Amino acid sequence: MTFREIFENYETIAVYGMSKNAVKAAHSVPVYMYNQGYNVIPINPTVDKILNLKAYPSLDDVPDEIEILNVFRPSEQAFEVVKEAVERHKKHGDIKLIWLQLGIVSEEGKKLALENGIEFIQNRCMYVEFINSGLGKKK
């Protein structure tokens, strides 16, 4: 699937590690995607809301269907996040794609995701790939 196809076919992005700090990419990238019309679900155990959206303490607490899991955690934590995502995928049948942001890499996580039928992108910025896909606002 190309980046353009991903952005055209998926609408719900859960953001693992979304920050309330507006200067961090873990805030600005999901906010940008939200402003493009995507359903953004913050996952952050330290806050109740980000961008006036309910934040969930864990991946397992999200009641909505997740299509893309966008991960803003250090590389050394990424495999554990992928394991959580695979468990959720097995239970709920959601999470079609795990996207590790720019600078985040987990070859172990990639192998596990692909073995379980989940698409995997790592070390790429969702904002940059969206802009490079030439897509405008969805709303």
What's the structural domain tally? 1
Question: What share of residues is helical?
Answer: 25-40%
Uncertain runs with pLDDT below 50, 5 residues or more?
none
The span between the termini is: 23 Å
CATH homology-level superfamily: NAD(P)-binding Rossmann-like Domain
* Number of helical elements: 5
CATH class: Alpha Beta
Question: What is the topology, as strand order, of the major beta sheet?
Answer: 2-1-5-6-7
Q: Might you state the CATH topology name?
A: Rossmann fold
Which radius of gyration do the C-alpha atoms yield? Answer: 14 Å
What does this structure look like?
The structure is a single chain. With 139 residues, the chain is α/β, with parallel strands linked by helices. It has a single domain (3-132), classed as NAD(P)-binding Rossmann-like Domain (Rossmann fold, 3-Layer(aba) Sandwich), CATH 3.40.50.720. Helices cover 37% and strands 18% of the residues. It has 5 helices and 7 strands; from the N terminus they run αβαββββαβαβα. The strands form 2 sheets. The protein has a 5-stranded parallel sheet, with helices on both faces. Strands 3-4 form a two-stranded antiparallel ribbon. α3 (75-92) packs parallel to α4.
